[in-house]
Every structure is written in C-alpha cells, then in structure tokens.
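Record type: monomer structure entry
Structure origin: computed from sequence
Chain ID: A
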Amino acid sequence: MIAVIGSGSWATAIVKILQENNTQRVNWWVRDKAVADGINATGRNPKHLTGVQLDPSRLHVSDNLQAIVDASGDILLAVPSAYIDKVLSQLPKQALQGHRIISAVKGTLPDCCMSISQYVEQEFNVAPVDICVVSGPSHAEEVANDMPTYLTAASRNESFAAEVAAMLHSRYIITAVSTDIDGVERCGLAKNIYAIAAGIGSGLGYGDNLNAVLTAGAIREIDSLIDKGLPFPGRNILDNCYLGDLIVTCWSRHSRNRALGEAVAKGEKPEAVFARTGSIAEGYYSVRNLHRIAKSLDIADKIPIAEAVYRILYKQADPRTEMQHLIDTVL
C-alpha cells in the first residue's frame, strides 16, 4: 500500500492519479485535521483542487503521520521542499527504514544544499536503491482536468523507477524511466529559479521574445550545472525531464515561481507574496542554495541568469538594472 505525504495541489493530483490507476486504498497524510475530515466526508480537498472528486471509500486520510507511514510500504513525498524537514523530523530516525521513498518534491532543503534524495538517505538511512524521484513537465491543475501530462521516474534502481512509472501511467499520464536521479533533481532545483527570472521579465513589461531568449539561456546554464557537478553518461538535456520541465515552469500561467518573479518586479516582497497567496515558490529558497553550489564548483560565471535572480531576491538588487545587464551582456 502507498502513502502520500502532503495535502497541496500536487499531492491531491497524485492521489487522483493513483486512485484512477489502482484499486488499492491510498493512505494520505494531511497536516490539518479539518482538511482530513473534509476529504473523508466528501472526497474533495477543501483547500486545493476543490473540483477533483476522489473516492473516500478507497482513502485513509489522517493527520497522524506515524500511523500513515506504519500502514504503508511505499512513501510518496509531495510536501514543498521548504517544509519537508519540518514534516519528516516528526518521525524517529528509523521510521523510513524498510520503506521505499518516492519524491515528487522540487528543490533542496531551505538552509542547506541537500536534495530530497540525499536528505532521506542521510537523515533516515534509506538505501539509494529504495529512492525514486518523479519529475515533470507537469502542473497539478492540468492533471485535475485529465490533460496530457508527461512524468519521468528516476532512480539508481531502474526496476524501481519502472514500477513507479507503471504506477503513475494512465490514459492521460505518459511516463518515462531514467537512472539520472541526480541530474533530474538538480534540474528540478534550477528550473524554478529560471521561472522567477521569466516572471521578472514579464513583470517589467518585457514580452515573449525576451522570455524565449531567457529560456534558451536557462537550459544552457542548467546543462553547465549538471554536467560540471553531476556528470552522467548519455544524458540528453533536451529530454522532457530537463528541457520540458524548464519550459512549462517558465511559461505557464500556473507557475507559482513565475508569479513570484512578476510580483517582485513590481516591488512586492517575497514574504508578502507568500502571505497573500498562501503558497510557497520553491525557487526562492533554491536560488540561495544554487548560488552556494555554483561557488563550490567555481562556475558562478556560467550561470549569470540565476546569479541575477539571487542578487534581486537576497541582495536587494534592482530588477530592471539586473535584467538590462543580462540583455546587454549575456542574452
């Protein structure tokens, strides 16, 4: 039996996929007891993707994390990376041993450069062969409407990745398998940062022409990041889990990171955006960690777009000045 940890839009979309593909019951942990009670009573998440109808008879929804984990085999994480440690630190260190972990989380822990796979391996002693990462391009809102969506399951254990891909495959979910878990995670970290850059350009009044050039520059920067720090034979940066995931995040109206960039360009502080929207844009934390990673690899000069976003968000640099500098010297 599988457990889904998290109660946001992406967690709700994943539960929808699992219910449509499998007759087994899904165990679902949500933080708020009122949300759990609402889902159990109506089959709808009262806060996220409220139009999605689930089958409560095949759900066990609870705010008791330990009980959900103990009742499950595979554990699928769908909590924003900013909160993952706060959630999982409720568990004893041995709680995830014997379980296989599937991460649908993008980014790193907020205050360090650990990816989610590194975190569960180091903090909970989960074997690398028991860890899988799920990547897009995917937006929960489109999954909710049965729109064609592409997912990649990446693991050092190819047979585990294939199991996860089969678990998620459906009439509108197209799945692929990869063993480049490090590259897929690093791209998931970076693509949100470049979506913030795209949003900044949009918020300053630039159009699609500049966004296209920003996106092209972004994939070159991501290629430098993963090729330098995480080399992998046969990697094709044009695959869906790299380029596709980047494009959807930079261009989509559903992108929280793009929306953050637009708001910041207009003078709003990130904290105010998060308070107003009630959601986190993971690129805000990721860019600080990517800045640290780039410095450690001595490649900060290879990622000027990401570095510009870092200066805007953390050094109070002027968005228009930074964007004009990119236009004049980089793009």
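Annotation 1: The two ends are 49 Å apart (CA to CA).
Annotation 2: The mean pLDDT is 95.
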